[in-house]
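Severity: low
Component: inverse-folding endpoint
Summary: output formatting inconsistent between runs
Steps to reproduce: submit the following structure tokens with default settings.
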């Protein structure tokens, strides 16, 4: 592989693909105390203060069994991302143990109305509707649940399988998969948790099976907001609609270092013919939670066969890498490690080869 670093044309190319966007840091899985059946312990107002102190921009508030949190006067679109976190059992999955077919699922939307519509259209929820509407948890076959997941996308939303290995216990990776373009919560609670290690292996298994699944992160906090499971995303504006749009495209980073990447004109999460195109990646910004001038950092570029390139990087310097994409590679993706802590701190979502 012939690699170029900080070539002016590559810098201009990646900058032009992300022109008009700004970097936002956030948490895609949290809860709040919003009344009704919510199970968070901190108010929306408390969350606002926590975001500011942690140098974070947004949090997805995914209260259980209800939608009322999105209609409260304290709700600020963009600071809070719309959604909910129901639970279910997949009755025909290959769970290895009795009662280990349970799972939660996160549904994120550009606005509250599509979520209300979905809950009303699927009779299993028994949703009474309206701003104070509540719904029940029901069991599903995999086929019926896939209909719900598809409906989320048809209504402009994004679906994530959160803490997958912590609830469902199946040896079959496909039990965790419902469609291409979905999210899998790879980083759960923190970058160094045992949960994260287990979920990361599941995600790699799905990638090896040819599934186009995006890595996401979530702290799943029910009390204080933390900066241990961050998402880095470049958006045109600070709004639910803009954030969800780029989640659906897979153009975001799971972790604490912001990365932008493309093959030709196609950004992270996309698919294109690699032949004759260049893979370009820009390491742009370390969040303060992982930035340490005394630590050593490394970037790995990975395809379906393994690591194809590694190089040390500095947290204080933007670096752009570029090389000719191999038409034999099924995908390219990147990870950043804190070598001083032996810790993976950022995962850029793949770009897939359409051949």
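Observed output (run 2 of 3):
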């Amino acid at each position: 592989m012939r690699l170029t670093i900080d070539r002016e044309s590559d810098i201009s190319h990646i900058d032009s693909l992300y022109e008009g966007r700004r970097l936002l840091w956030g948490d895609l899985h949290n809860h709040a105390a919003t009344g009704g059946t919510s199970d968070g312990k901190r108010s929306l107002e408390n969350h606002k203060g926590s975001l500011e102190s942690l140098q974070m921009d947004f949090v997805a508030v995914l209260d259980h069994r209800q939608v009322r949190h999105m209609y409260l006067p304290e709700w600020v679109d963009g600071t809070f991302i719309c959604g909910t976190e129901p639970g279910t059992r997949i009755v025909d999955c290959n769970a290895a143990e009795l009662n280990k077919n349970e799972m939660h699922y996160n549904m994120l939307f550009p606005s509250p109305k599509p979520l209300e519509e979905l809950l009303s259209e699927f009779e299993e929820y028994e949703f009474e509707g309206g701003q104070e509407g509540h719904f029940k948890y029901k069991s599903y076959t995999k086929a019926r649940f896939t209909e719900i997941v598809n409906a989320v996308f048809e209504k402009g939303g994004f679906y994530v399988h959160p803490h997958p290995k912590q609830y469902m216990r199946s040896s079959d990776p496909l039990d965790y998969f419902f469609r291409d373009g979905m999210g899998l919560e790879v980083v759960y609670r923190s970058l160094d948790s045992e949960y994260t290690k287990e979920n990361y292996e599941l995600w790699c298994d799905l990638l090896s099976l040819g599934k186009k699944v995006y890595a996401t992160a979530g702290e799943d906090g029910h009390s204080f907001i933390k900066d241990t499971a961050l998402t880095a995303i470049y958006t045109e504006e600070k709004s639910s609609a803009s954030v969800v749009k780029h989640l659906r495209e897979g153009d975001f980073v799971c972790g604490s270092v912001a990365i932008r990447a493309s093959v030709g004109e196609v950004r992270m999460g996309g698919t294109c013919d690699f032949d004759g195109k260049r893979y370009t990646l820009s390491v742009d910004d370390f969040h303060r939670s992982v930035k340490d001038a005394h630590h050593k950092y490394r970037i790995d570029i990975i395809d379906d066969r393994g690591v194809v390139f590694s190089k040390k990087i500095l947290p204080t310097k933007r670096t752009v890498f570029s090389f000719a994409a191999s038409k034999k590679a099924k995908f390219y993706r990147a990870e950043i490690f804190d070598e001083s802590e032996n810790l993976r701190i950022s995962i850029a979502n793949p770009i897939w080869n359409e051949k």
